[in-house]
Each structure stands twice: as C-alpha cells, then as structure tokens.
Design goal:
The structure is a single chain. This protein has 129 residues and is mainly alpha-helical. The chain folds into 2 domains: 60 residues, no CATH class; 37 residues.
Length: 129
C-alpha cells in the first residue's frame, strides 16, 4: 500500500501516516507470534496458573472468613437458594388459600357457629378495683 501524502495543509497527516504504519507492523508481528504452537502452549500454561492461583486464593479466603466467623460466598449462595425455595413455597400456599377462599365464597353463606350463647358482660367501670 502506498504511503499517504499530505494533500492539505494539515500538519497531522504525516503523524497519521506514521501511526498507521506502526499499527500495521505491530499487527504483523503479533500475527506471527500468536500463530505458533509455542505461543498456544505458553498461553495454556498461563491460564492454568491463573486458575490454580484463583482456586488457592478462594481457599485461603474461605478459611480466613471461617476463622473470623463470616459467611463465604458459597454460604451466602446457599442461604439465597434456601430463601428462594421458601418464597416459592409461601407463594404456592398463598395461591392455595386464595383458591380455598374463593371456593368457600361460591358455596353461599355459612351456617352460624353453634355453641353456648354469649351472655357474659364486660365489667363496668365502677366494678374495677
């Protein structure tokens, strides 16, 4: 590709041309480097090291949190899942209660509750000690 020549009086045209050339060279070098088996093996080793380090850190952090009697991420997730299950059960029970209430309302008026008559009167203000 031919180098761009300044067509206007813009002083940054030469700078843009230099940056474009620099980007093309870096891209070519990176393409050669990343296309090799050695690079692939090195990246695989780096990822494995990163995963091992992350797991080790999580283990250390979990033991530290346990020592200071704080919940770990796994503990919080477990509690959240249990809370979600409880909320779902309560929602199901509410739905059943609504269904039962609707069924009772459609049956008509309920008979009065039988039992002894309520004849006892509350104490008057003058009787209070």
């Amino acid at each position: 590709m031919a180098e761009r020549k300044p067509q206007s009086g813009d002083p940054f045209d030469r700078l843009r041309a230099v940056v474009d050339e620099w980007e093309r060279r870096i891209d070519a070098i990176a393409g050669e480097m990343t296309g090799t088996d050695t690079f692939s093996r090195a990246m695989n080793q780096v990822q494995n090291l990163q995963l091992r380090t992350q797991r080790r850190f999580q283990g250390v952090m979990a033991s530290h949190l346990e020592r200071v009697n704080m919940p770990t991420r796994a503990d919080v997730i477990r509690v959240g899942e249990a809370l979600l299950a409880l909320e779902q059960r309560v929602a199901r029970m509410e739905g059943l209660l609504v269904d039962i209430h609707r069924a009772l309302d459609t049956e008509g008026p309920r008979p009065p509750v039988s039992g002894p008559p309520r004849t006892r009167q509350p104490p008057s203000r003058g009787d209070a000690p």
